[in-house]
Amino acid sequence: MIDFEEELSHFKPSLEVEEVEDAIVNSDLTDMADVMMSLIKEGSKSVKSDE
Amino acid sequence: MNKPKDYTDRCRRIANAFYNEGFRLAQIRDLTGAARCLKRSLAFDKYQTDARNLLGLIYYETGEIAEALVQWVVSSNLQQENNRATHYLYEVQGKPGRLEDESIHIHRYNQALLQAQNDNPDLAILQLGRVVEHKPNFVKAHMLLALLYIGQEDYNKAGKSLYKVLQIDKNNPKALWYMSIVKSHTGRADVERRKLKNAFSHHQMEDDDIILPPSYKENTGWQMILQIAAGLALGAAVIFFLVMPAREEQLNDSHNRELAAVLEQVNQKSMEIDGIRSDVANMEAERDAATAELAAIMDENGGVLSQYQQLVHILQAYRADDFQTAVELYTELKPEAVSDEGMQSVIAGIREDMERRGYQVLADLAGQARDAGDTGRALDYYQKSLAIKPDNPQVLYDMAMVYQGRGEEDQANELFGQVILNYPDTEPAAKAKTARGY
To answer: Is the pTM of this model over 0.95?
Structure first.
């Protein structure tokens, strides 16, 4: 059976057209390649500091 | 240690793989699954423009137009040239009032959600009804409406909303779950379970079993009448287009055969008539020939019969010793008309006698007639005498003299000329010369 209240709480407001601009600005475009590159950079920095 | 380039390449390949899966799911309208794959694709490579554009299209299809705009704007910023997203943005933003309408409906949905979460489901249902009326592809609104109906235990209306959701997004997990609950409450689940059981049941069919097609329906009275009328029309059309031409052709063939037979009979009759006409013509010719022959026989003057009679009279005159009569009758005789050989020999004897002494009797008779002043009769006797004996200058001369006496100088001169030329040393020739004045 459905727990009506719980189900209802799962519904989120839809993004309104006026909020598109903010959504674009705040959108996180980080992808796996970015993550890997940052990890590689951090890794190379730590190696240099150890040296 | 791997180079950064290797990582980025791997990420791009993984992103492509997720995009391909998302594209495949979108093609079968599993939009939820497709959106999940496309988001993963973008998580590995934010520059996967196709994945972002397709994700925007899926948002647009499910009524989330603002989410679609976000994806397409980001896409067109990340790849400014040769990007389909610019076309989508133009289509959505280019039509005046379009975005405003969309904004109003999304705002209403958000209000309805707020009302629903604040224990005001009736107002929420009213709002959502207006939303889905204008935005029938707004999946979130349908889902919320279905949930509210389920909460009110109005499972039929909930089922209608869920049915629309599943038409847009076939494998929407929440919609499928809601639908299963709705079906369990409407009895639809039992019906489907029974159908499924029947579909996969294998039992031996009896001879009397009848398989009714799913489309079978009992006919009403009007349907029956319409079907009968359609059947009659179809039958008439079949008769008109199929039976009638064949029958007409058969009749034409029969008539043609009869006509040919009649024409053949007519030709035979014509040939028979031609033969009869030919026979008639031949018979008529034979009749004419026979008639002519008979006429020749019966002719009193030159006919065969009359010649025989003439010959009999001549012989009778001989028997009576009346030579003058015999001579006169002989002049009328036509010996060629008598074909009997026995008679021909008699005629030959008479002719010999006539040539020997008969011509002179005629010349004497001519002289007597001339002396009696009957010049015509005299000329007739002279002609008959010459007929028996043509080379008789005396008769020719006497005849010329008669013509001269009648004043017919031409005939007279001609006869004088014959005497002078043909019998020059005779006495008549000398006389003729005198008469001519030589």
So the answer is: no
